Amino acid sequence: MVSGLVKCSKPDAAIYQLACRTGGFAPHEAVFIDDVQANAEGARAIGMAAVHHRSADQTAAELRELGLPA
Question: Whole-model pTM?
């Protein structure tokens, strides 16, 4: 999703909601990963699981904590 084309950007809730609608899934069914903490917090605010990426090992560990294969 290109923020300039959809006229909204992270961490605005509208872009996460649009991604869910476009993808055909609910926020609670999604995991959002971003290296910017504010963007991860924006995703969490609408009900997504979110990981603030700081390293591959840390992201993999957080995904495993969510019950996902890393």
Answer: 0.90
